[in-house]
Amino acid sequence: MGFRKDFLWGGATAANQCEGGANEGNRGVANVDLMPLGEDRYLVGTGKMKMYDFDDQHFYPALTAVDFYHHYKEDIALFGEMGFKTFRLSIAWTRIFPNGNEEKPNEVGLKYYEDIFKECHKYGIEPLVTINHFDCPMYLIKKIGGWRSREMINYFYKLCKTLFIRYKGLVKYWLTFNEINMILHFPFVAAGLCFEEDENETQAMITAVHHQLLASAMATKLAHEIDSNNQIGCMLAAGSYYPETCKPEDYWKAICDNREVYMFADVQARGYYHNYALKWLEERNASIPFVKGDKELLKENTVDFVSFSYYSSRVSSSDLSKGKQSESNIFSSAKNPYLKESDWGWAIDPLGFRSTLNELYDRYQKPLFVVENGLGANDVLENGSIHDDYRIDYLRQHIQAMKDAVEKDGVNLLGYTTWGCIDLVSNGTGEVKKRYGFIYVDRDNLGNGTYQRIKKDSFYWYKKVIETNGEDL
Ligand code: BGP
């Protein structure tokens, strides 16, 4: 009983939130580099404001991030010390193809990731690689409008081919796109979309995500052809919506909100768009830009496993004024009076995690992989230590809920990677002070600090959890 023997315990990061070294190794500029700190971040992320070049009025956190670029050996050694079985990281597209459309890949970038994967294997850590975690070369955004253009599929395909060939034998777990449903909330980040005035935004988003879904299916096919050991997963931002009350209108709103969460992962896991997705689009005067052969490609190349992020459950209310989006949480939700919240106002709901695991397994009947979960908190460094018992508490309850889903509900689960195993830049706010890690990084929101790594109390706790395969929480 309990977790399977080969359960993949570990932690997760993303290139733009972790690496820094943005001007090194011939790297090009990506959309996520241009996400400033401060109020404008939300406007840029949602495609309401164009930031086509760096300026002096803003601070851009991704440029240095937490400097994993120069610290990766030290950081991977720390992951090894915790006993990680896997480490989730993403490839910065612009390290491999700086503009996205070069003939030949950039060898410095390819070598950088090769070194990282080799370093991981030294410690028995299996890399889990997100091919696209919110990054798109700015050159392609300016030239062809990012993922609204079907041409993006060819550029992405070339990237995938390069990676699958070069890293054959070094990487076997791949995720195509991070949080495929994020396009509905953060379209510039997820697909490089900036909207024109009076544009049908839904049409732009569905066009872009359809291209991503095709690219994902092509990548899945290719990965299997190049190495039959490759395991490909989709990735969605999950978290069940509860109705605010038992009023039928609230329940109906929750059904609709949940459908928006699953709408695109459905295509990756089942191979087709659900009828409600087509109706949802019709209502918004939008449609999927199908071309001959698309449906077959999607149908024949579904993923091997379904991965997801879970931070909190959400609440649907038929009173629309109650569920506004905020800068600290890009998903809309009414307040849940039964739950405590994090320092950033995210509801803490371990049982919701168990529900979400069950909902996903019921729906897809494919192995699941939790690739993000964790608590963003304002840690305080006291005499060289960080006593983050609140994080231990959050993770303990969530791992227990996950264990219940496995043991009592029969969910088939491959692994668990906590988000931001080392402190990094927040995607939503651009802060580093919203810390998730087991490892503290001495760097403030404005990039000042020594970038020294310090183990938090949770570091030792997680080590014990892994050692006992989740028995000693
Ligand atoms: C997910 C993203 C991550 C990560 C996480 C935490 O949506 O996949 O990149 O950032 O959320 O969110 P935040 O950084 O806003 O706290």
UniProtKB/TrEMBL annotation:
Catalytic residues as annotated in Swiss-Prot or TrEMBL: E372 (nucleophile)
Coiled-coil region: none
A single GO BP: carbohydrate catabolic process
A GO CC term attached to the entry: cytosol
Domain of life: Bacteria
GO molecular function annotations of the record: beta-glucosidase activity
Keywords, ordered alphabetically: Glycosidase, Hydrolase
PANTHER family, per database record: 6-PHOSPHO-BETA-GLUCOSIDASE (PTHR10353:SF296), GLYCOSYL HYDROLASE (PTHR10353)
Entry's family note: Belongs to the glycosyl hydrolase 1 family.
Protein name: 6-phospho-beta-glucosidase
